[in-house]
Design brief:
Layout: H1 16-28, E1 39-40, H2 48-51, E2 65-73, H3 77-88, E3 94-97, H4 106-109, H5 121-124, H6 128-131, H7 142-155, E4 168-174, E5 179-184, E6 189-197, E7 207-208, E8 219-222, H8 228-231, E9 247-251, H9 255-267, E10 270-275, E11 281-282, H10 291-296, H11 301-314, H12 331-342, H13 350-375, H14 379-385, E12 397-398, H15 402-405, E13 411-415, E14 424-425, E15 429-432, E16 435-438, E17 441-444, H16 454-458, E18 462-464, H17 471-474, E19 493-495, H18 507-527, E20 532-535, H19 537-549, H20 555-560, H21 586-599, E21 605-611, E22 616-619
Parallel strand pairs: 2-3, 2-6, 4-18, 6-19, 8-17, 9-10, 9-17, 10-13, 11-12
Antiparallel strand pairs: 1-7, 4-5, 5-6, 14-15, 15-16, 20-21, 21-22
Helix pairs in contact: 3-18, 12-13, 13-14, 18-21
Length: 621
C-alpha cells in the first residue's frame, strides 16, 4: 500500500499561539483537585463489578496446597507470553493464576458490543509467524483476539496447569524455605520458588466516585463486565434489543465508549453520553486482510513491521522509510517525513525535530476537529465533541460510526466539563449541569486503575519481601529496580510492565521483551541450583541513576495536557502510568538486555543457594 500524507491546514492558517491558549483553558476547567481520589474501588456492594464473572460460572473446588518452580500472576498477554518464553527456555513447572475464567486478560473481561483492537493487528498480535495465524482484518475484533490467545495456549501446551477464577490476595517471602507463599481467595497455599508479576495494566476496573452512586435503583454495570442478559444480544451478535424501552446513560468518551456508543444509540430508546473530555476520533479504515499481500510476506516481516510502527508512533521514521501502518497513530510522523523529504532531508537536532513535529501536531488536530464539524449536524454538539489538546494527550481513537450516532434523534451528548463530571446520582437517575435526568440504566466506561497506587492497581492486598517489608512501602518514594525486572529485598520476584524500562508502541511487543528476559533469569537460576536471586545494591543504584540521568523530560508536555490516564488527573503531580521510562528508547534497551544475557554472568544479580546445614547460603557462580 502506498501510504500518503494526509491533507491538513497549511501552517500559515494555524494560529499556534491562540491554540496553545485554548488548550490551556480547556485543560484548566477539567483539572480535578481530587485527582485519582475521584474514583472509588469496587468494594462492598460494588465488589461484583470485578469479583463476579458474567461470562463463565465459577466452579467450586477444594483449596490447593502445592509447590512450583514458578507462579505467573496473570493469564492475559503478559502471563501468556511469560508462560510461552518459560516453556521455550525449558522451564515447565509453572502455573498461571488469574481471577478470570480463562486466558485473555483484558480481552477475556471486555466483551462489550463493538470491541476491537485499536492498534494494527499485524503488530499487536504476537507470534504470528511462529503460529502461522493471520488476523482477518487490520483492527481485529475482541473475539478473534481472545480466540487467538487460546490458540497460543493450546499450541504450546501452556494451559495444563493454569488456575482460573482465582484471585491472589497475598504474597509473602519465606526465607526459611526460599519460596514465595501465595494466598488466594479460594483458600490456596501455593509455594513458588519464583513469582512473575504479569498482572497487566488494564486489569482492575474503576468506578467514578459520584455522590449518591449507591442510591440509584436502576441497573448499573461497567463496560468490562457487560451484561448481555440485560441489554440483549451477545458478544458474537450484539443486537441489544432489550434496550428498546430503556433510557440508558454511558459515562465516558474514551476508547471503549467510542466503540460501544454506536450500538447503544442504535438500540436504546434514549441514550445519554456523558462526556468530560472528548477524544480524537479519526476514520477507521479497517479492510480485510488481503490474501495476496499475506502470501507475499517474507520471513521476518512481523518484526520489521513492529519496528516500523514503533518508529512511526514513538520516535521518527528513518530517511526514506515508508509508513507500513498508515493510520492515526503514524500520521504526524508520516506527514513530517513527507515535508522533510521535500526539503532534501535537512539535518535536524532533536530539539529542531521536536519543534517541527509540534507544528504538524497542531495541524493534524485542526484536521480532526474539522472532521467532527463535517460529520455532526448539531453545531452545539459538534463543538462539544472537538478535542482541544495535543495529539498524544489522550489515547487516539478511530471509528466510522461514533460521530454519526449523535445525529440520531434518540441520542444526546451531555458535556460535563464545566462541573468536572456528573454532580450526583439519585434514586431515579443522575444530575448533570444542575438538571436531573431519569434513566433506567447507567453504564460506566470509566476505564481501569492505571494511574492509581500500586495496591489499588494490582488488587493484591499484601506483598511482603525479606523481613516482612511491604513492596508498596518499599516503592512509596520512588521505584528502585535493576532493568525494571527485579528489586532488592524481594528475591525471585520478577516484574513485567512499565517500571524503569523502555516503552514500545506495541504493548504486546513490550511484554514479550520483558518476559523473554525474565525467562532467561529464571532458567539460569534453576540451572545453577540457585535458591535466591536479587539485584545487588550497587547494581540497582547504578541502574536507577542511569535511568534518571538519561530520562527524557516530558513533564512540560504532560502538564500542558488535559487530564487522562497518560498523565493522571491533577496538575500538581502528573502520574504517567509508566514509572520512569528508559530514555534512550526501546532499541537501546533491548540491545542492552541482549548484551547482558550474552555475557552469561548475570551481572548485577546476587545469586545464592542453600547448602547443608539448612539456612547457610553460599554464592553460586
Amino acid at each position: 500500500m502506498n501510504c500518503q500524507p494526509t491533507e491538513t491546514p497549511p501552517p500559515e492558517l494555524v494560529d499556534i499561539e491562540a491554540l496553545r491558549e485554548r488548550y490551556r483553558q480547556e485543560r484548566l476547567k477539567r483539572l480535578n483537585p481530587d485527582a485519582t481520589g475521584q474514583y472509588i474501588r469496587a468494594r462492598g456492594k460494588f465488589a461484583r463489578v470485578y469479583a463476579s464473572d458474567p461470562h463463565m460460572p465459577v466452579i467450586p473446588r477444594d483449596p490447593i496446597v502445592e509447590e512450583r518452580d514458578v507462579a505467573i500472576l496473570g493469564a492475559g498477554w503478559s502471563g501468556l507470553l511469560a508462560a510461552y518464553h518459560l516453556k521455550q527456555a525449558g522451564v515447565t513447572t509453572f502455573r498461571n493464576i488469574d481471577h478470570a475464567g480463562d486466558w485473555g486478560g483484558v480481552w477475556y473481561w471486555n466483551r462489550y458490543p463493538g470491541i476491537q483492537c485499536d492498534n494494527d493487528a499485524y503488530c499487536y498480535l504476537p507470534l504470528l509467524e511462529e503460529t502461522g495465524f493471520m488476523p482477518s482484518k487490520k483492527f481485529a475484533d475482541g473475539r478473534e483476539i481472545l480466540d487467538y490467545m487460546k490458540l497460543i495456549a493450546g499450541r504450546y501446551g501452556l494451559g495444563a496447569h493454569a488456575l482460573f477464577h482465582t484471585r491472589v490476595t497475598g504474597l509473602r517471602w519465606d526465607a526459611a524455605s526460599g519460596r514465595w507463599r501465595i494466598c488466594t481467595d479460594r483458600g490456596d497455599d501455593i509455594k513458588a520458588r519464583f513469582v512473575v508479576m504479569a498482572n497487566g495494566l488494564l486489569n482492575m476496573p474503576k468506578l467514578p466516585g459520584i455522590p449518591g452512586i449507591g442510591d440509584f435503583r436502576g441497573k448499573m454495570f461497567h463496560t468490562s463486565r457487560w451484561e448481555y442478559d440485560y441489554t440483549g444480544g451477545s458478544n458474537a451478535n450484539p443486537v441489544l434489543d432489550k434496550l428498546a424501552d430503556k433510557r440508558v446513560a454511558i459515562i465516558g468518551t474514551g476508547a471503549t465508549a467510542i466503540q460501544a456508543t454506536p450500538y447503544l444509540g442504535r438500540y436504546a430508546k434514549q441514550l445519554y453520553v456523558l462526556q468530560r473530555t472528548p477524544s480524537t476520533v479519526d476514520e477507521r479504515h479497517n479492510p480485510p486482510t488481503d490474501p495476496q499481500w499475506a502470501a507475499s510476506l517474507q520471513p521476518g516481516w512481523q518484526k520489521a513491521r513492529k519496528r516500523n510502527f514503533h518508529r512511526a508512533a514513538m520516535e521518527r521514521f528513518a530517511r526514506g522509510e515508508p509508513d507500513l501502518i498508515c493510520d492515526i497513530w503514524t500520521e504526524i510522523n508520516r506527514n513530517l517525513s513527507a515535508e522533510l523529504e521535500a526539503e532534501g532531508w535537512p539535518e535536524l537536532s532533536i530539539q529542531e525535530f521536536v519543534a517541527r513535529r509540534e507544528v504538524v501536531d497542531y495541524r493534524v488536530m485542526e484536521r480532526l476537529r474539522a472532521r467532527v464539524e463535517a460529520m455532526v449536524q448539531d453545531r452545539r454538539t459538534a463543538d462539544a465533541l472537538k478535542p482541544w489538546y495535543r495529539f498524544l494527550c489522550k489515547r487516539p481513537a478511530s471509528n466510522d460510526d461514533f460521530y454519526p450516532t449523535f445525529n440520531r434523534p434518540n441520542v444526546q451528548l451531555i458535556d460535563v466539563s464545566d462541573t468536572r463530571g456528573v454532580e450526583r446520582m439519585t434514586q431515579n437517575g443522575f444530575v448533570a449541569n444542575g438538571v436531573e435526568v431519569e434513566i433506567d440504566c447507567m453504564i460506566f466506561a470509566s476505564g481501569f486503575e492505571v494511574t492509581s497506587d500500586l495496591d489499588q492497581r494490582w488488587g493484591i492486598d499484601v506483598i511482603e519481601g525479606r523481613g516482612g517489608v511491604s513492596l508498596y512501602d518499599h516503592w512509596r518514594d520512588g521505584y528502585t529496580t535493576l532493568h525494571g525486572i527485579m528489586t532488592r529485598g524481594f528475591p525471585n520476584l520478577c516484574f513485567t510492565g512499565y517500571v524503569q524500562s523502555a516503552l514500545n508502541a506495541s504493548t504486546t511487543e513490550q511484554m514479550s521483551g520483558h518476559t523473554h528476559h525474565v525467562a532467561h533469569i529464571i532458567q539460569e537460576a534453576l540451572a545453577r541450583g540457585a535458591t535466591e536471586v536479587e539485584p545487588s545494591r550497587q547494581a540497582e543504584d547504578e541502574w536507577v541513576r542511569h535511568v534518571r540521568e538519561t530520562a527524557i523530560d516530558a513533564q512540560i508536555f504532560l502538564r500542558e495536557c488535559t487530564p487522562s490516564y497518560f498523565n493522571g488527573e491533577s496538575s500538581e503531580k502528573p502520574r504517567l502510568y509508566a514509572g520512569e521510562p528508559y530514555g534512550p528508547g526501546w532499541d537501546a534497551f533491548t540491545a542492552l538486555l541482549q548484551t547482558w544475557r550474552d555475557n552469561g554472568d548475570l551481572a548485577g544479580l546476587v545469586v545464592t543457594k542453600t547448602s547443608q546445614p539448612a539456612g547457610e547460603t553460599v554464592p553460586v557462580p
